[in-house]
Amino acid sequence: MSDKNNKVPFNEDNYTHNINRNNERKLDRRGFMKTLVGAAGVFAISSLPFGALAAKELSGLSDKKYQKHKITDVKSISIGDAVDFAFPGEHDSAILIRLSENKYVAYQNACTHLRCPVFWKKEEGEMICPCHHGKFDVKTGEPIAGPPRRPLPEIYVKVENGAVYAVGVKRYEA
């Protein structure tokens, strides 16, 4: 056996002699900017799938489809009467009002001020929020008195085969 294999190649006690330790941890301005740009690029590429999902969701808001929901039969509601129902979800309370023989209006019945329930006063022909004395126009849902500033969200209704159906919700642009 030769003496060559049993010999330590260098006199040092470790083998890290080939690493240049001078200025090893120093980060100059150019290196910092390269790191920053690289990190921004990695962040941008990793967030692309979420941006695509958000764009898909936002583009689908304008043509959102609701399942047709039967509110009541035409013969069970007189002119000037109202019916409470839930639309589009089971916890979204709404009100249907028959204004004339063939004219129906429906709104979400949560006041746009502080979400108090809105009631139909047949004798006065008004929709009233009793919490802060807000009033809404029954034909348009626009606020006419009190603190509410926004109209009630309108629900599209359709009369078919002697029944009134809720078919959609009007989208308001803020």
- CA-based gyration radius: 34 Å
Low-confidence regions? none
Would you tell me the structural class of the helices and strands? alpha+beta
Count the DSSP helices: 1
Proportion of beta-strand residues: 25-35%
Average predicted local confidence, pLDDT: 85
Specify the helix fraction band.
10-25%
Order the strands across the largest sheet as they lie in space: 1-10-9-4-3-2
**Spatial gap, N to C terminus:** 89 Å
Number of strands: 10
Described by the principal axes of the CA atoms, the overall outline is elongated
Largest sheet: 6 strands, antiparallel
SSE pattern, N- to C-terminal = HEEEEEEEEEE
Q: How does this model look, in words?
A:
This protein is α+β, with helices and mostly antiparallel strands. The protein contains 1 helix and 10 strands. It has one helix at 29-59, and strands at residues 69-73, 82-86, 93-98, 104-108, 119-121, 126-129, 134-136, 143-145, 154-160, 163-169. The strands form 2 sheets. The protein has a 6-stranded antiparallel β-sheet, with no helix packed on it. Strand 9 and strand 10 (163-169) form a beta hairpin.
Question: How would you describe this structure in keywords?
Answer:
elongated; single chain; 174 residues; 1 helix; alpha+beta; 18% helix; four-stranded antiparallel sheet; six-stranded antiparallel sheet
